[in-house]
Amino acid sequence: MTTFHIITLFPESIEGYLHSSIIGRAIKDKKIKISFYNPRDFTKDKWKRVDQKPYGGGPGMVLEALSIVKAAERAIGKKKDVPVILFAQDGAQFTNTLAKTYAKKYEHVVFICGHYEGVDERVKKILKAKKISVGPYILTGGELPAAIMIDAISRQIPGILGKYESLEEGRVGGSVVYTRPEVFVWKGKKYRVPKVLLSGHHANIDAWKAKKRK
């Protein structure tokens, strides 16, 4: 079973997604596990404050190193070979190839979800965290990127999608799909399913699908 450890101030922001649909079923079937760690539970501050003003000035607040490192250490425990992911705009681009690698290689993955102006740089050094970016844009926190990675990695784990053919990248299928009815009428106009898909000629159908993938 693969366990995803998520260090976040706002677990409720992605709990709904992770416990729904295919990912939710994978959790119930004990193929994957999700564990949350709130940095506020690891701070010595009596007000549970984990953000501080940045040295050198600048806008916003920065998440302190102590509570993040302690949360990560709790997640890692005595386990070996546990990758720690820190989401950052300047990180390596997350790809489906990387998702396959994580699915095959690791039983535990730790995600650090930053907020505000980011996480104290010493966290990366101490935990030897790998910076990852899920796209050329900026989000308000790392929770959505964590959910994206968990989804992409999980679907590469045998048994989660039910059939290997369900992996879009591993089947002869196109990005263009149709289902019943054969003729869909909308506002007086008819929209038909391509004849080739109704022909029963599997070679022609596969060729059509392969063409649509390009």
UniProtKB/TrEMBL annotation:
Its main subcellular localisation, reduced to a broad class, is cytoplasm
Keyword Transferase attributed: yes
CC per GO annotation: cytosol
Annotated GO biological process:
tRNA N1-guanine methylation
**What residues bind S-adenosyl-L-methionine, as annotated?**
G114
Q: Name one GO molecular function term.
A: tRNA (guanine(37)-N1)-methyltransferase activity
The UniProt entry, under Gene3D superfamilies, shows: 3.40.1280.10, tRNA(m1g37)methyltransferase, domain 2 (1.10.1270.20)
Domain tRNA methyltransferase TRMD/TRM10-type per the UniProt entry, residue ranges:
4-213
Q: Which family does it belong to?
A: Belongs to the RNA methyltransferase TrmD family.
Q: What does this protein do?
A: Specifically methylates guanosine-37 in various tRNAs.
Quaternary state and interactors: Homodimer.
This protein's name: tRNA (guanine-N(1)-)-methyltransferase
Gene name, Swiss-Prot/TrEMBL: trmD
